[in-house]
Amino acid sequence: MKITVVAVGKIKxxxxxxxxxxxxxxxxxxxxxxxxxxxxxxxxxxxSPARRAELRETEAExxxxxxxxxxxxIACDLAGREMTSEQFAAMLAAHGLAGRSDIAFLIxxxxxxxxxxxxxxxxxxxxxxxxxxHQLMRVILLEQIYRAFKIQRNEPYHL
Length: 159
Hints:
The chain has about 160 residues and is α/β, with parallel strands linked by helices. It is built from 5 helices and 5 strands; from the N terminus they run E-H-E-H-E-H-E-H-E-H. The chain is about 45% helix and about 20% strand. Strands 2-1-4-3-5 form a 5-stranded parallel sheet. Helix 1 links the parallel strand 1 and strand 2. Helix 1 packs parallel to helix 5 (about 135-150) and helix 3 (about 85-95) packs across helix 5 (about 135-150).
């Protein structure tokens, strides 16, 4: 399986970078993993809704440029469907069994996704109704991907 995580912004905190590196190493035993950061647009509290939409479009353009046309795209989105870790593992396994083993996860910036990024998504997954910093969302996503592989193989991490 080939997994690409395309995220807006860079990891700035060393402890989050360490966690990303650790889960990346763990996942590498099960799949090829690429983590791609695209520049985050500077957003001001005084920006109009129209200006914010423009900035989201710019971020979406950068994100989608990093996604292969053949990839199955899954957006990490508050409006997506919620699932358990077991259901997430089953979803990943189902994609692999169906020959869709090139998966790209999208993590938007602080103001979310532009409509065209969501239109490109084949699925939308909500990890919680709570809002997480987009840097932390990378760690959460990678941990769940690692957990999914452990669940699929009935290995002890999840038990």
